[in-house]
Amino acid sequence: MSSAILTDTTLCTGCDKCVDACVEINHLGEDVHYRWREADGLNENRFCSVVRPVPDCFVRLQCRQCLDPACASACPVGALQKTDAGPVIYDTEICMGCRYCMMACPFGIPRYEWESAVPHIRKCNLCFEAMAKGEIEQPACTAACPEHATVFFRDREEALREARHRIAKNPGKYFEGRIWGEHEVGGTSVLYLSSIDLSSVLWHSFKPLGEEPFPEKTERIMVTVPPTFFGVCAVMAGTYWVINRRRRLMDGEPPEEIEGPPEGGEP
């Protein structure tokens, strides 16, 4: 049984109490800003944020906790894992900071510790550790929401039933009667209801994401990484040898004293 969060943007007032609760429970530092990613408010010290795409509409952003996460399939060391409980968690002891997950995520969620000497990836994990230890009964963000605009459910199907109930009860209130995250990229554990089109807010793409899980795409790409890596290394080694050889010849060093090319390089 996979847990889920249902966020109804029509109820959100933009109070940021969910953000404050997330900062407190995760012991996050001061907020940081980068010119190229300030728009959504997420960074290594902010796992959730509230944006206002249009006047009087607030949308809380966080990791969508995909049912079949592309970030986990793209990680070459298995630092990211999808749990049976729903959250996609990560292990900083394993993470090597390659940032493949950042490139794979269709929502652009994982953030890099740019200012750290030993950087890792950071993102929301639905307070997985605190809940597993019994310290809290639900994510800090949902517990802190005074308007119940974002609600935690132990069962994703229950969250979907509640979303459908709200749509049926309020005809015309929600954009096209749509539940954002129900089907996109195989479905997510963070669902949205809204009176406006959230495509430009939720997606990290200008094109529709479709319903196919992204791992089916990322796995096809990841199998090409090892041969590409070693191929590039061989080309760089060969290029270095050629440039170095020419430099030494220009300096007047006898050809017979110049070392031979690296194995597989240019003769």
CATH class call of the largest domain? Alpha Beta
Question: β content, as a range?
Answer: 5-15%
How many DSSP E strands?
A: 9
Considering DSSP H and I runs of 4 or more, what fraction of the residues is helical? 25-40%
End-to-end separation in angstroms reads 61 Å
Instruction: Provide the low-confidence segments as ranges.
Output: none
Please report the number of helical segments. Answer: 9
Domains, number: 2
Q: In CATH terms, what is the architecture of the largest domain?
A: 2-Layer Sandwich
Principal-axis shape: elongated
Written overview of the protein:
- It is a single chain.
- The protein is α+β, with helices and mostly antiparallel strands.
- It has 2 domains: 4-221, Alpha-Beta Plaits, CATH 3.30.70.20; 225-257.
- It is built from 9 helices and 9 strands.
- Strands 8-1-9 form a 3-stranded mixed β-sheet.
- The N and C termini lie far apart (61 Å).
What descriptors fit this protein?
single chain; 267 residues; alpha+beta; Alpha-Beta Plaits; 2 domains; three-stranded mixed beta sheet; two-stranded antiparallel ribbon; 30% helix
